[in-house]
Amino acid sequence: MYFTDGSLFPENMAPLVITAAPYGPSWLPGDAADIAVTWDEQVQAAVDCYNAGATMLHLHVRNPATGHMSADIDHFNHMLDRLKKAVPKMIIQVGGSISFAPKGEGKKSEWLSYDTRHMLAELKPTPEVVTVAVGTCMMDLTQMWSADDIKGTHLEDPKKLAAWAGMFTDAGPAFYLEHLKRLKKNGIQPHFPLANVHQLEIVERLIRHGVYMGPLNIAITCYGGGGCGYNPFDWMEFIRRTPQGATATMWAGMRTNAVAQPLGIILGQHCRVGNEDNLWNAKRQRITTVQQVQAVVKLAEQFGRKVATAEEARQIMKIGVTYNSAEETLQNLGLPPNRKEGERGFMVWPTDGKRGVAPAMSDSHPMAYCMVPPDQPETREPVGAAAKGR
Question: What is the pTM of this model?
Answer without folding.
Answer: 0.87
